[in-house]
TrEMBL record:
<keyword id="KW-0847">Vitamin C</keyword>
<dbReference type="InterPro" id="IPR050295">
    <property type="entry name" value="Plant_2OG-oxidoreductases"/>
</dbReference>
<protein>
    <recommendedName>
        <fullName>Fe2OG dioxygenase domain-containing protein</fullName>
    </recommendedName>
</protein>
<dbReference type="InterPro" id="IPR027443">
    <property type="entry name" value="IPNS-like_sf"/>
</dbReference>
<dbReference type="GO" id="GO:0031418">
    <property type="term" value="F:L-ascorbic acid binding"/>
</dbReference>
<keyword id="KW-0479">Metal-binding</keyword>
<dbReference type="InterPro" id="IPR044861">
    <property type="entry name" value="IPNS-like_FE2OG_OXY"/>
</dbReference>
<feature type="domain" description="Fe2OG dioxygenase">
    <location>
        <begin position="17"/>
        <end position="120"/>
    </location>
</feature>
<dbReference type="GO" id="GO:0046872">
    <property type="term" value="F:metal ion binding"/>
</dbReference>
<dbReference type="Pfam" id="PF03171">
    <property type="entry name" value="2OG-FeII_Oxy"/>
</dbReference>
<keyword id="KW-0408">Iron</keyword>
<dbReference type="InterPro" id="IPR005123">
    <property type="entry name" value="Oxoglu/Fe-dep_dioxygenase_dom"/>
</dbReference>
Amino acid sequence: MEKVLGLKNKEILRLVEFDGMQSINMINYPPCPQPEKVIGVKPHSDTAILTILLQANQVEGLQVKKDDKWVLVKPLPNAFIVNVGDIIEILTNGLYPSIEHRVVVNPKQERLSIATFLNPNLEFDIGPVSSLITQQNPPKYKTVTSKEYIKGVFSNEPDGKAYVDIMKLY
Ligand SMILES: O=C(O)CCC(=O)C(=O)O
Ligand SMILES: [Fe+2]
């Protein structure tokens, strides 16, 4: 991604190279006889840098929002799904938007997923990287310390792309 964008000084990589943080969510979705009445995980984007996700027992349920429609992500054997998180959207000044997703439940089968979230080293600020900012392309997002960013994540309920909207300047 840095190569494609022509970024210098490891402007993305430095967030994870030393003391980046990883956390894991293992989720068991029991079968639900009335799946239309419940939601497994409500619509949100991941506030991390990237998410690496395994639909561990190959049962579908994950959907991503594309052109305002929910699209099913078919489980593939031995394949990981990589979701762009809000931090990549902010660092790239919107060039790589984070993906909104949700999980619906299955009437018959239980579903297991394992999501690994790549989170930033707390030493660096979160904001658009300087090599992507020019007079013609001014920052679209605020720059905050990682601690402020994480504090904001925990004080806002996951809700669509609401948190990345809070980080927007206009
Ligand atoms: O269970 C899944 O497939 C996704 C879970 C998820 O979106 C999350 O934990 O942030
Ligand atoms: Fe998620």
